[in-house]
Write a structure and sequence with these properties.
two-stranded antiparallel sheet, mainly alpha
């Protein structure tokens, strides 16, 4: 799989940081990946999407898609891809990795909420 990354909007970096448990934060999520996955699902539910123009370069920085997969969010990514594209074949084994369209919903949805 390629080094595909999920980037966080620069204007939402502080919000994402506040959602994660850490120094000076009483967040509810253990990792940035958990917070972003939740935001992606909520954004999709509320049908809120916005284009991302500038990205956070540091804390929080880009998160490798492999992190989401290792935390079990590959099913969520696939379901969001199906809902977004209205094409269940997007997750077909015949679609070559890294299935860029499958990750598009996760990359573009999260912090629009």
């Amino acid at each position: 799989m390629s080094a595909s990354k999920v980037r966080i909007a620069k204007d939402k970096a502080d919000l994402v940081k506040s959602l994660v448990v850490g120094e000076g934060s009483d967040g509810v999520f253990p990792t940035y990946a958990d917070a972003i996955a939740f935001a992606a699902a909520l954004g999709n539910k509320r049908q809120r999407r916005s284009p991302l123009s500038s990205f956070s370069q540091r804390d929080p920085g880009a998160i490798s898609v492999e992190i989401f997969i290792s935390r079990g969010y590959d099913t969520l990514i696939n379901l969001l891809a199906i809902v977004t594209t209205k094409n269940p074949k997007i997750i077909s084994p015949k679609t070559p990795p890294p299935k860029p369209n499958a990750y598009k919903s996760l990359k573009n949805t999260p912090t629009a909420v």
